[in-house]
Structures are given as C-alpha cells and as structure tokens.
Amino acid sequence: MTKTEDKMIIVGGGIGGLAAALAAAEAGQKTTVLEQAPEFGEIGAGIQMGPNAMAVLDRFGVGKEIEKIAVFPKRLVLKDTFTGEELSALDLGEEFKEKYGFPYIVLHRSDLHFALLDACEKSPLVNLITDQHIEKIEETTDGVVAIKASGEKVVGKALIGADGLWSKTRAYFSDDKAICAEYVAYRGTIPISEISDDANMDMDDVIMWIGPNHHVVQYPVRRGELYNQVVVFKSLNYKEDSDDWGTPEEMDQVFEGAHPLVEKALSFIERQIRWPMYDREPIDNWTKGNICLLGDAAHPMLQYLAQGGGQALEDASYLADVLKKHGKNYEAAFKAFQEERIPRTARVQRNARVWGEIIHAEDPTSILLRDTIFKQRDAKDFSQVDWIYGQKYGQGSKKITK
Ligand SMILES: Cc1cc2nc3c(=O)[nH]c(=O)nc-3n(C[C@H](O)[C@H](O)[C@H](O)COP(=O)(O)OP(=O)(O)OC[C@H]3O[C@@H](n4cnc5c(N)ncnc54)[C@H](O)[C@@H]3O)c2cc1C
Predict the structure, then answer these.
(1) Fewer beta carbons under 10 A from the terminal one: N or C of the chain?
(2) H helix or E strand, kind and range, residue 185
(3) Which whole-number Å values give the CA distances from 87 to 34, 36, 74, 78, 211, in the listed order?
(4) Which residues share a beta bridge with 228?
C-alpha cells in the first residue's frame, strides 16, 4: 500500500492555488501543486488588484516585486460609451492609499502569476508538478487521494481544490452548474506605442466605458509598456451548448456609433478568442473532512468588481491563519476557513452581479437616475467601496477568532 505522505495536495496552479501553497508554506506545511497544463502560466491580459489583494501579496513577500512591474493608476473612471462624458471617478491617490494601507495597481496577469510561481519555486516546502489533470478526489482512512484520468493516484494528508470555474473538485461538494451570463469578453494587450501617440488617450486612469448591455475596460500594464483592453457585451443570440453567439460581428453592431476612442479600442481588440462569462450561485459548504475549496472553484464570480483574483488571495491569506492556528487538524482549520470566507465571498459574488446590472442598464430612466447619482459623487468618497477594500487579511491586519 502507498504510504500517505505528510503533505497537502493543491489541485490547480492558478493565482489561488499558488497563493494557497505560499499560505501553507508560511504555516510550515508541505504542499504539492498539481496543474493540468503542460506549463504554469496565465493568459495575455491585464488584472486589477485592489488594496485588499495587495495586502496579501505583501504578506507572502511578493508585493515589492509586483510593484516594480505594475502600473499605479490615478483614478478608476466611468465614461459613457457613446458621448464620452465622464460619469464618475474614484480617486486612488494618497488619501486612498493612506486609508487602505496599500495602493490599487494594474498589471499583466502573467507578471502576477510569475511572481507567485517564483516565490513557490524558492520555497523548499512547495512541490510544483505540471501535466496533472485531476478527474476525481476521494478521502481515505488516513488522508486524501487525487485521481488522474489514467487512474494514477496522488496521495496526501489534505487537499485544496483550486481548479477554477470548471472545478472537478467542486463536484465533491455540489452538483451545481456554472451559470452563463450571456455576455462575452474579448480581451488582450497591445504594445503601448500602438496608441500612445494619440493625445486623446488617457494613460493615467483605469477607464471603464459603460452603456446598455456592454462595457469596455482599458488600462496600461507592465510598467506602461503594454495597453490592456477588455470588451464585454451581452449577446442577443445566446444559445445554450453552442459557441455560435457573441461573435466579433455582433460586437461591431453593439458598438456602432460609439465614441471614437471606443471605436479605436475595438480596432485593436483580439478577435480570435471569445470568453463567455459565467458565475455560480454561492454555496454554503466548501469542506468535508480534510478537503476544501478555494478561489474560483469555491466562489466563481462575474469580473465586474475586479475581485475574483483578490478574493482567491484573501482566501489564501486566511488559510495561512487557520493552518497556523490548527496545525494539521485540517478538519478544524477548513471549517474555520469557510465560516469566515463564505459570507464574505458570497457578498462579493452577489454584488458583482448587481454592479453589472447598474453599469449595463438599458432602460432610459434607470440610466438617467444612475448617471445623476454618479455625477454627484465625490471622487474621494470611498463609502461605496469601503466594504471591498477595507477588509484585510494581510500581514498582521486580521486576527482569527475561531
Ligand atoms: C475578463 C475577466 C477579467 C477579470 N479581471 C479581474 C481583475 O481585474 N481582478 C481580479 O482580482 N480578478 C479578475 N478576474 C477574475 C480572476 O481571473 C479569477 O478570479 C482568478 O483567476 C481565479 O483564480 P483561481 O486560481 O481560483 O482559478 P483559475 O485562474 O481558473 O486557475 C485554476 C487553475 O487550475 C487548473 N486546473 C483546472 N482544472 C484542473 C484539473 N482538473 N486538474 C488540475 N488542474 C486544473 C487550471 O489550468 C488553472 O491553472 C477576471 C476574470 C475575467 C474572466
């Protein structure tokens, strides 16, 4: 019989899985990260990290490296897709940083992923393995087992499912299905030189152009060398179990008559890959025995609050706290983990949907009311975002009570 090694298995080596490995290492525990892809990596697009996420990156010792390659936007700005009018802004300057303890940054996903991967590779407690597609997980009398399609088994004492939206490990807890929002995204980065000669381009801010059933996000990444763009819209041709909806042709129709800067964004957008948008309903249990979910596997959300990765990082930070407190009593650690994290992440999941409805409003009365409220906001009024950025699981900022 195979002897169960004294280690935790982490299924999935995305932001969540790698951060979970760093969390376990901080608690002095060994992990093996099993990633299905032939190489660890991320797609070629940008990611926003709020101060709640930055607190965690700082805790795991990668904050400074990330700050070297990130961009520090001055404001988050909402603009009307058609008129170009600025509707609202959030000032990310000194007051914001002072209040939340960390800056708001934007960076290339692969830069973030690489920084986490590098920290994992430097840790003697983290073992990283690629080409490991896990089909099924099980508990055994003295631990857990992750089973590949070939039937090959990897055994350990505990297991964290960090395998994303289409998680196989989630099936151990729930038979729920991912819910398609009927929106698609097209995204990618282009060299900044392609657009920076346009005097009308605003390189200091994260810009979100909004309009009925669509939005476009733009910001520079990688020290300002690349420009990230995401175009998102609701398809009127959605068909379940089909890829024939949300096409580039439909995108062009949706944005007909848009402001010239939005038209320009569309002219540079990568049209080959479309990303249908999904989330799931929050569930009230992520753990059983020595098995637990984390990141998108536990709480996949729509990206409208730019918090999915941030919540995966918060998960990892709190995981470090519970592992330090409960040691190898995984059952107790994972119970305490989910008791803290489920309410928080469910709130973010639900609010992401609501924010989507607000920015995508299509009825003229709702748009008028929304824009009137938006325009009255002070850019330094942080009351609406306090619940997101004000929660800290980073270095020394949160003590566990459970
Ligand atoms: C358009 C868009 C924009 C976004 N913008 C932001 C943003 O600005 N800020 C932010 O914080 N979040 C953002 N998000 C959300 C963020 O990308 C996710 O929440 C985050 O990537 C989740 O990380 P994860 O590690 O939990 O899952 P994933 O990133 O999905 O990683 C899962 C990993 O598990 C591997 N895997 C999957 N199945 C298996 C298996 N069976 N066996 C082994 N390995 C497996 C995968 O290959 C992958 O490496 C955005 C999402 C989208 C779609």
Answers:
(1) N
(2) strand 179-191
(3) 45, 43, 16, 5, 11
(4) 189, 219
> Domains (ranges, CATH) in the chain?
8-177+280-389 (3.50.50.60), 181-194+222-278 (no CATH)
Sheet holding 226-234, edge to edge: 86-91, 75-80, 205-211, 214-221, 226-234, 179-191, 275-279
pLDDT, tens only, 244-287:
999 999 999 999 999 999 999 999 999 999 999 999 999 999 99
Tokens of 342: 């489920």
The pLDDT of residue 25 is above 70: yes
Residue nearest to atom 29 of ligand 1 (CA): 14
- pLDDT, residue 395, reads 61
The set of protein residues with a Cβ atom below 6 angstroms from ligand 1 is 11-17, 34-37, 47-48, 132-134, 162-165, 168, 185, 187, 230, 275, 295-296, 303, 306-310, 312
Nearest CA to ligand 1 atom 28: 164
Instruction: Say how many Å lie between the CA of residue 256 and the centre of ligand 1.
Output: 31
